[in-house]
Specification:
There is one protein chain. This protein is an alpha/beta fold and 375 residues long. The chain has two domains: 186 residues, 3-Layer(aba) Sandwich (Rossmann fold); 182 residues, Rossmann fold (3-Layer(aba) Sandwich), CATH 3.40.50. The protein is built from 15 helices and 13 strands. Helix 12 links the parallel strand 12 and strand 13. Helix 11 crosses helix 14. The relative contact order is 0.13.
């Protein structure tokens, strides 16, 4: 059996694919199936080590991004996408996978067009409450559609849809508190706030944190994932902001938290500040209370809708970007940290919201379709 994965170039697309691939490998071993040959076709590998660890072969396919605003780059990206479609037809014809699992995003569009032309079965997963354009296109011919939020069912043929939640890697479901304080060089008796501002980081969140940093470290320890491109500026600014603060060692900025560092950070976190993307399902599985700051002006306002759906479940509070300020953020942090009962209720609500078996459910359906196509 041959299984092909495709998705856009962000962690929100890539890591759920890895979660599903892990479960496909586990199910294949448990049920004594022949080990499937797996491929990941996209503009970039994102994380070559994880692909290698899961026996997934990377194949590069170009794709252009269609922006919603005028840009001369749109013209060149249309040409790039056209070339990507032609190349995808050749690539898929040579591989001829039994099933394709697509996470959406512009990076998967050429593969999905080729899959439709070659009549290869497609399973898609939609992470958000409002689907992106690629998944709306693929939903018209996909064999099965997995969704994370009930609201998105109205955009697809309901007979094809299953509410699964968002796939989370097994490693990320098991937090590691042991040794975390030593590893992260933190004090055990001071509350911990973890800031996750998306795989690319968020300058807006970073700047607000820096403005209130001196007040924050007087009461809390801060683990701050800044994004690779922001780490230098954030580190320099934090050193100035905390130059005379006796608690400056309580602030720990990181460009990126790898799997171990993230498991440890989440394991000791009393509160998480995050965006409104697919990370919400990891946070829900961890059962950690959160403050969600959704990105403004996303496709269909999906991050905002994700955030409010999660908050309505009782698992989080939402601060919209237009209302975000050092004072507002600090006040909400203090309110939650001063109320263990509220955080306990939020933790329980988060665990009820979580769907930790999403990856396994999707993997089983992919295997079922792939085996049927083999015949």
């Amino acid at each position: 059996m041959k299984i092909l994965f495709t998705g856009g170039g962000t962690g929100g697309h890539f890591y759920p694919i890895i979660a599903v691939a892990e479960e496909i490998n586990i199910i294949s071993q448990e049920e004594h199936l022949l080990t499937p040959k797996m491929y990941f076709v996209a503009p970039g590998a994102y994380d070559k080590d994880l692909l290698y660890e899961n026996n997934i072969e990377f194949i590069k396919n170009p794709a252009g991004k269609l922006r919603r605003y005028f840009s001369i780059r749109n013209f060149f990206d249309i040409i790039k996408t056209g070339y990507g479609i032609i190349l995808a037809i050749i690539q898929l014809f040579n591989i001829y996978p039994d099933v394709i699992f697509a996470k959406g995003g512009f990076g998967s569009f050429p593969i999905l067009v080729a899959a439709k032309l070659l009549r290869i079965p497609v399973v898609i997963h939609e992470s958000d409450s409002v689907p992106g354009r690629t998944n709306l296109f693929a939903g018209k011919f996909a064999k099965r559609i997995a969704i994370s939020y009930p609201d998105s069912v109205k955009f697809f043929d309901e007979s094809k849809v299953a509410l699964t939640g968002s796939p989370v890697r097994r490693q990320m479901l098991n937090l590691q508190k042991s040794g975390a304080y030593e590893f992260l060089k933190l004090e055990e008796n001071v509350p911990v706030i973890l800031i996750l501002s998306g795989s690319q980081g968020s300058e807006k969140i970073n700047n607000v944190i820096l403005e209130t940093l001196s007040d924050l470290v007087d009461k809390y320890q801060i683990i701050h994932q800044t994004g690779n491109k922001n780490i230098k500026g954030v580190t320099q600014a934090s050193q100035i902001a905390l130059s005379d603060n006796k608690n400056k060692e309580r602030y720990r900025p990181f460009p990126y938290l790898d799997t171990l560092a993230l498991r440890m950070s989440a394991g000791i976190a009393d509160l998480i500040i995050t965006r409104g993307g697919s990370t919400l399902f990891e946070i829900a599985a961890w059962g950690v209370p959160s403050i969600v700051i959704p990105i403004e002006n996303t496709n269909g306002d999906h991050q905002r809708k994700n955030a409010f759906t999660y908050a309505q479940a009782g698992a989080a509070v939402v601060i919209e970007e237009k209302n975000l300020s050092p004072h507002v953020l600090f006040a909400d942090i203090n309110r939650l940290m001063d109320s263990p009962k509220d955080r306990e209720l939020m933790s329980a609500a988060a665990k009820r919201f979580a769907m930790p078996d999403a990856a396994r459910k999707i993997a089983r359906e992919i295997i079922k379709i792939g085996l049927g196509h083999e015949k």
